[in-house]
Amino acid sequence: MSLKEQIKNDIKEAMRAKDTARRDTLRNLSAAIKQIEVDERRELSDADVEQVLMKYAKQREDALAQFKEAGRDDLVAKEEAELKIVKSYLPEPMNDEELEQTLKELVEALEAKTMKEMGKVMAKAKEVIGSRAEGSRISQIVKKLLS
Fold it and tell me: Which InterPro entries did the record assign (predicted)?
């Protein structure tokens, strides 16, 4: 079952269970996926859906930080609940040691030695690692390895 189908089925389950928070979050995700499909006139793969989920999670994290700063505890709880739901659909993130080891192997395989080759390493890293690590974390470790 694709990730998109899983989300649709979970919307139905949330409706049956009268879980409005989960239902609304999943509907927002489904709408974001559908919007991209309509705009680009193509069917999204699971990897594309993961990118949409990561973008949505990042938006929730940004909103969460702003609400905490403003002292809006009611909205903080709502954003945390949404973030938890979204993250349940994303693959388990890599820990730092696992990420660094994967990137070391990539750098060696690509025979990258200088910072000029960082773009080549980053492109391959995004392909290999996918949504299991944020680009900023990958970039930080690649810079450390190449310098």
Answer: Asn/Gln_tRNA_amidoTrase-B-like, GatB_Yqey_C_2, YqeY/Aim41, YqeY/Aim41_N
Residues 129, 108: Cα–Cα separation, whole Å = 16
Handedness of CA 50, 53, 58, 61 (dihedral sign): negative
What stretch of H or E contains 96? helix 96-110
Task: Sketch out the chain's domains with CATH numbers.
Answer: 3-87 (1.10.1510.10), 96-146 (1.10.10)
How many Cβ atoms are within 10 Å of 23's Cβ, its own excluded? Answer: 19
C-beta separation of 122 from 107 below 8 A: no
Average pLDDT per block of 10 residues along the chain, 147 residues long? 94 97 96 96 92 93 95 94 94 90 92 89 89 88 89
Alpha carbons 124 and 107: distance in angstroms, whole number: 10
Neighbours of 124 (CB within 10 A): 16
